[in-house]
Design goal:
Layout: E1 7-11, H1 18-35, H2 43-48, H3 59-74, E2 82-83, E3 86-87, H4 90-107, E4 113-117, E5 120-124, E6 133-139, E7 142-152, E8 155-161, E9 170-171, E10 176-177, E11 181-188, H5 191-204, H6 208-213, E12 219-224, E13 229-231
Antiparallel strand pairs: 1-4, 2-3, 4-5, 5-8, 6-7, 8-11, 9-10, 11-12, 12-13
Helix pairs in contact: 1-4, 4-5
Length: 241
């Protein structure tokens, strides 16, 4: 458990080393220590308490702020790191952390990798069965039920919803938490892309599926509060059942 969520790392390659996996776990803990909006000693908390000047931000913090600003523009303002007057980069940090971990493992020569934090996943190569990785989408109204089974490789997938953590996704346009849909799952070329756009699309409500449809290399599956499902044109190619 890191960042308050379950973390899974699987490397299928027979050359996999325990120390490489432990290094990724260590990296995740360092990111949590820096970016947590709850830990008293985190850089985020120091910023929110006014104890850290803008010129003293870490290089990684500046990178996250730049990425968040880019996402804000790409989503027409439906993504923000300023929530009710406080700085909270949670909407972008998880996807960024997973993607950075996957890139590090790729540089080590691993070809078949699965990295997950709290349901957001980066996938490369094949699973231990020799086939594509299998990922399920939960029914947000009955979370022990899988309503779609996906077959994935060399991509990222992220889900935004309220069924596990309650209403926690802020809509910066309306100024209140987003509750218009139950969940939206986004598949992208990497988990960073999937995660940041899933957060923004959820804030958009039912318009989120059209927004994802307009983005090249992104596909999505949305479930509304009245239990209807909508998906982008290319989503079906990932569905196993």
């Amino acid at each position: 458990m890191i960042m308050g969520m379950p973390v899974i790392i699987e490397i299928v390659d027979i050359t996999a080393k325990d120390e490489d996996i432990e290094e990724i776990f260590s990296d995740f803990r360092k990111i949590d220590e820096r970016f947590s909006p709850y830990k008293e000693t985190s850089e985020v908390m120091l910023i929110n308490r006014g104890k850290l000047a803008r010129g003293d931000y870490s290089q990684e913090m500046n990178k996250i702020i730049a990425l968040a600003e880019e996402t804000k523009h790409a989503t027409n303002g439906f993504f923000t790191t300023t929530i009710r007057g406080l700085f909270d980069p949670s909407g972008i940090v998880k996807g960024y952390a997973i993607w950075e971990a996957a890139k590090k493992l790729e540089k080590r020569g691993y070809e078949n990798v699965f990295v997950e934090i709290g349901g957001d996943i980066q996938i490369k190569g094949v699973s231990s069965s020799g086939s594509k990785w299998v990922v399920g989408i939960r029914n947000p109204f009955q979370t022990d039920e899988i309503i779609k089974v996906l077959s994935l490789t060399n991509c990222g997938i992220a889900t935004s919803g309220t069924y596990l953590r309650g209403s926690h996704i802020y809509n910066p346009v309306s100024g209140v938490n987003a509750t218009d849909i139950a969940s939206i799952t986004v598949i992208g070329k990497n988990v960073y892309e999937a995660d940041r756009f899933a957060t923004a699309a959820f804030a958009m409500g039912e318009n989120g599926i059209s927004f994802i449809q307009s983005k090249q290399y992104l596909e999505a599956y949305m479930i509304t509060n009245n239990e209807r499902a909508y998906f982008t044109e290319g989503f079906s190619k990932f569905v196993q059942m």
